[in-house]
């Protein structure tokens, strides 16, 4: 045993971008003690990284640890052994200083994924958006080590897995989570279903009482259906059903998580939605439902909401149209046809499409305009042409979709809880009869109506003459020949001119859902927090009857495929906006450039 204390210092030249200054915090001395062999190995690894040399393990077991310098011929060597009767390890010998000059490359054998995870753990806990690229840069600045992107990514994933917990454990806890939702938010619906054969997860349905109350009692009778693919370990699909509050903001009503998007799962989700509304309404409202043209959704709506007005989402329709014809001018005309308020305006836009491409006009004519065109839609869409739920929620739903299932649902619940509180508090400051957005529209209509001439036919019918032309208004039927009043539920400028001439309060002729009182009722209920899962107990039924069979939920069988998932999604408003029309200088047609022109010479 060596009795003379020795120090490990590195006196090596600067290598590439490294600044090799000995750090006294990483000096190793004879007699230095560690809690166990793992702590000893970690200390030697940290010292090797800090002082820019690599080590090679010679022997490592429960009672001793020996390592040497990885450089051939360097005499550096350290030996540590366990003290008798305790798990403590101590350094027994350290042989000489390094003669190798340190490593001559920018990587490091000891810079393992585990070391990367330990190095960035605190930063990741404070900022989960800390990117692998930033990890690479920070580690290079701090340690002079160049890692691969995969090392940084795996290090981050290891920390995040520890922070957010096990995906598998969260599936197992789903029955208890549903119980917690129903206990903390009475009147809520939370149900989980597994496969009867193997208990693998199939479906989860959640709707909070605050959302149910607000939709049934104060929202527009309008529902949008949408879905997004989950990006977590076991994939799956998140289904949405969302209403719209009086001020035009999304009002999420129900969520479904399914193992895959299929006909059966959409049928199940719509059946749960139907039951929800049937139980919580005195009578089933006649809804307007917006969705894509997917056959499984269309069939489910017809099965469970046969009296509903079903409209197709224009975002989805224009996407299909764009893929088929790849012409921006045609897409813009399609949107203009969808927005047209009268059949004459609509047909005019279709004829413009036909002048450019007869094939495109025939394609759109094969889809009945009653499903997508404002002029022909039988219900009331209140100006909503898209069920753009995912786009509207993209800023936070994209991140949530990669989390374990309970954490994802908690992210959704917290966002809803915050929205309810913020909107409830904001609405208490309003002094107008109507919500702000509708108040502005009525004020603008009042301004335009000043120049209109009103002629009375009888108690309810009027003729309004303006520079735009002549329109007929019936205040008993709440309708105008321009269709604006019927379609939006807000008096158009023609109706406003009539109501003012009759000395009526214009604001009382808007739909009740647009009043500030209805808006406040929409958000009158509170979404309550759910306790941390460490505080959960067995459900009351299981506690009362220990012999009751406990519902076991296993993870679904699907797993994330290799490769980086797509992160960005083009927003609906970008698709529908008017874009610059390109012209080909070779054939003088629109929609492409000369370099991609396929016309014959």
Automatic annotation (TrEMBL):
SMART domains assigned: ZnF_PMZ
Domain SWIM-type: 462-503
Keywords: Metal-binding, Zinc, Zinc-finger
Pfam families xrefs: DBD_Tnp_Mut, MULE, SWIM
Region (Disordered), start-end ranges: 555-575
Domain of life: Eukaryota
GO MF annotation list: zinc ion binding
Identification of the protein by name: SWIM-type domain-containing protein
């Amino acid at each position: 045993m060596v009795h003379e204390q020795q120090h490990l210092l590195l006196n090596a030249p600067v290598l590439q971008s490294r600044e090799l200054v000995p750090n006294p915090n990483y000096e190793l001395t004879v007699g230095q003690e560690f809690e166990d062999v793992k702590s000893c190995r970690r200390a030697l690894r940290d010292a090797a990284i800090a002082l820019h040399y690599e080590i090679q393990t010679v022997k490592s077991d429960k009672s001793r640890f020996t390592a040497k310098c990885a450089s051939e011929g360097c005499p550096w060597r350290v030996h540590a052994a366990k003290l008798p009767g305790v798990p403590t390890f101590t350094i027994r010998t350290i042989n000489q200083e390094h003669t190798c000059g340190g490593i001559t490359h920018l990587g490091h054998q000891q810079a393992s994924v585990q070391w990367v995870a330990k190095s960035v753990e605190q930063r990741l806990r404070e900022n989960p958006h800390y990117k692998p690229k930033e990890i690479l840069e920070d580690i290079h600045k701090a340690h002079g080590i160049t890692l691969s992107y995969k090392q940084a990514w795996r290090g981050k994933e290891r920390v995040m897995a520890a922070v957010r917990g096990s995906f598998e454990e969260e599936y197992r806890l789903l029955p208890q989570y549903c119980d917690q939702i129903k206990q903390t938010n009475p009147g809520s619906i939370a149900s989980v279903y597994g496969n009867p054969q193997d208990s693998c997860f199939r479906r989860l349905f959640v709707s909070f009482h605050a959302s149910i109350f607000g939709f049934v009692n104060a929202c527009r009778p309008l529902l949008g259906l949408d879905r997004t693919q989950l990006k977590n370990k076991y994939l799956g699909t998140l289904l949405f059903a969302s209403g719209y509050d009086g001020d035009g903001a999304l009002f999420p009503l129900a969520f479904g998580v399914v193992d895959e998007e299929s006909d059966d799962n959409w049928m199940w989700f719509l059946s749960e939605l139907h039951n929800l509304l049937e139980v919580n309404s005195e009578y089933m409202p006649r809804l307007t439902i917006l969705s894509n043209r997917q056959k499984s959704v269309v069939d489910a709506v017809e099965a469970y909401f046969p009296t509903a007005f079903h409209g197709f989402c224009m975002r989805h329709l224009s996407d299909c149209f764009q893929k088929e014809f790849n012409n921006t001018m045609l897409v813009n005309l399609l949107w203009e046809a969808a927005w047209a308020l009268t059949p004459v305006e609509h047909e005019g836009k279709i004829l413009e499409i036909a002048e450019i491409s007869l094939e495109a006009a025939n394609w759109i004519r094969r889809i009945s305009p009653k499903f997508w065109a404002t002029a022909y839609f039988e219900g009331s869409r209140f100006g909503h042409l898209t069920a753009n739920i995912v786009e509207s929620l993209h800023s936070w739903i994209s991140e949530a979709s990669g989390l374990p299932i309970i954490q994802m649902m908690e992210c959704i619940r917290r966002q809803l809880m915050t929205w309810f509180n913020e909107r409830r508090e904001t609405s208490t400051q309003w002094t107008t009869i109507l919500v702000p957005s509708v108040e502005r529209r009525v004020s603008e209509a009042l301004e335009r109506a000043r120049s209109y001439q009103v002629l009375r036919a009888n108690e309810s019918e009027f003729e309004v003459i303006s520079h735009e032309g002549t329109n007929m208004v019936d205040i008993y039927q709440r309708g105008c020949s321009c269709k604006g009043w019927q379609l939006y539920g807000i008096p158009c400028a023609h109706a406003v001119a009539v109501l003012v001439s009759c000395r009526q309060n214009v604001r009382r002729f808007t739909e009740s859902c647009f009043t500030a009182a209805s808006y406040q009722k929409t958000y009158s209920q509170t979404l309550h927090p759910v306790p941390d899962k460490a505080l959960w107990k067995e459900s009351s039924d299981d506690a009362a009857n220990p012999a009751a069979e406990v519902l076991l939920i296993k993870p679904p069988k699907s797993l994330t495929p290799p490769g980086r998932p797509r992160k960005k999604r083009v927003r609906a408003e970008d698709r529908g906006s008017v874009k610059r029309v390109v012209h080909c200088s070779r054939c003088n047609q629109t929609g492409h450039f000369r370099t991609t022109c396929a016309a014959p010479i």
